[in-house]
What does this fold into?
Amino acid sequence: MQRRLSMSLAVAAAICASTPAWAQVGDARPNVSTFDGTGAHAWDGNVRASDAELVALLAEGVKRSPTLKALVERLNKSDVILYVRMDVTSKTGTGRLTFLTANAGYRYLVVHVPNGQSKAKQLAALGHDMQHAIVVADAPTVTDSASFRREFEKIGSVSQSQNGRDLSFASPAAVETKNRIQRELSGDAPAQKVASAN
It folds into this structure.
């Protein structure tokens, strides 16, 4: 875990060292981009996927779920950059959100999408963690892992994950967001506003 965190921090430092045009906030278009800065929306939004497969998954989710679209739009207007990665080690079918770093006026988070699940389950898990990212966007005092944990202790619950290394977060708003996205993807729910940060 320590080695993986160190590698992640090194990647973040390299990304944050330059401030290219993609770092502009305020573009409300619900788009995603790839880590390597290639593709139709390269570095164009605050939600960034690690590969083309995840870009396609997110694009499908934004198209089919008004809630997921609204989450992406809110993050695009914030100082939070959310990296989306596939988690091939997940055995629970749930996602994970971790605080990476804060630098140059931006806060960087990583969401790990569970592998081996249906697209609907992956998108619902992603929406759950994107709701948590909105919490961070709305809480300027969250600037490191310790304040990240404290914020979630205030609004929901924090527990040790099954792997014994990571923390798991839950809040009523995130659970409702996940359920709403599942209903939208199955065609059973009307569009609703994105839940408040809590």
The chain is about 45% helix and 20% strand. Residues 34 and 49 are 5 Å apart (CA to CA).
